[in-house]
Amino acid sequence: MSQPSLTLPTPGQQEGRNRRLLELLGAAAIAATFLFLVLTQPADIAGGLGSVSALVALGGFLLGAALLIVGVLPTLPTSTVVLMPVALVLNIVLGQLMGTSGLPFYFDAIGTVLIAVLAGPAAGAATGALSSIVWSFINPTVLPFAAGAALIGFLAGTAARYGLFRRFYLAPVAGFATGILAGVVSAPIAAFVFGGTSGAGTGAIVSAFRAMGDTLLAAITKQALISDPMDKAIVFAIAAMLVYALPRRTTFQFPFVRRCNVLAGKKPVQKDS
Amino acid sequence: MVPRLNPLTLLAAAAAVLVMTTAASSWAVSLTVASGAVALAAALGRARRVLLAGGAILAPFWLSLLVMHGLFYPEGRTVLAGWGPARVTAEGIGFAFDMGLRTSAFVLVLMLFSFSVRVPDLVAALATLRLPPQFGYVLASTLMLAPIIAVRLHTVRQAQESRGLVVEKGLGSRLKAVRLQMVPLVLGLVHDAGTRAQALDARGFRRAGPRTSYREVHDSAAQRFFRWAILLLAGAAVVLRIVASASGGGPA
Hints:
The complex is a heterodimer of chains A (about 270) and B (about 250). By secondary structure, chain A is mostly helical.
């Protein structure tokens, strides 16, 4: 009996290049959509619903998120893919835990940041985008924010890559900067797709800026600049705390952590490789 | 009735209806789609679940929209009432209703989809689209892990309480309680994931190429035709809207 080879084929170089192309296309789609929305908005929103803007925002951001997922997922090691559902559930469950503890924050990115620190920017971006898509089965309004969530994961991974998680006090600083960018990218979605924000507190802040005569996009962007950096600074600090609470044996299983020296402290003695 | 339909057909129908609603950008269409979703849910016997879940999301959203645009809408000209800086304008109320109805249609249609589709069927159907199999794994695994993790969190809390954890009023005590529950929860979950990764790797999880599936998802030529047709229709609606807004010298 002639049998095919029992070992798994290694992915070719061509395939790797295609994946990389998909990632770049996804990032380009998100950036182009954002630029289009910001450049065309003054003429659009005053006229009413801004239907074209809403279509572009939904289409461009979701396409970008989908390309990122399809490009990144097959390249990730199984240990990272298996951690993703855990991260997504953490995004939801820890958010609920915070809700019952009565603290005025919504931490819906802790799992995303955790993966980004352990497995790098690409894994973080894919986790963020997937988080929005899976969560939309329970709450559809988070679906259009997939691109913003992907950006948070990417930036968290980049911060880890350049050693910002090696000092505990630098993590919240990186979170603050991430919050600024993520808030600015998510604001056009809130403005053009939903015409506002869903929370009572954020709604009050937007109303205050509107009362001063700002356009809707400007008001929502300013509101995001108030809420998001604070929220992300805390989320990054919590993720850093969790990563350092993990046993070193576990964190150093991740190639990204070993290669880029993400965490402070010495490497454990390596038996293999 | 619904289980006979391919999940991809449901997905394509939901997506196309939402694109067309957004492109139409009229409160009448949004209202029709939203009530259509509720009526369909009622016909399938799922009206209560869809309305409860949708209402929990939509009620605060509507409240926020009405306060935001009902009281503060600087572009509004027709003032109905005013108290200092707050002015109720006809345009503001109209905008709040337009946006609220469109979002209601969005939420209700997607809620109906997620309550009608069976996740294992959806995962099997997605695999035929040549999406990476990891996508199906993450989707299904998350939706199935959630209740398991909730039970685990409960266990962790009981264990910590038996060791003397008492949550008091102060912020410090609450933060400490959250930390005492989160750290063991995350440690356990990450450890489990490592074990699962080895088991999956041993079974060729990362293997590229075709896979066999134990689950046969029903599909037919008519459904395939319907999917293409409705997606083309949605594309046509988008093109029409862009042409209309470009030739009208501005947004409609």
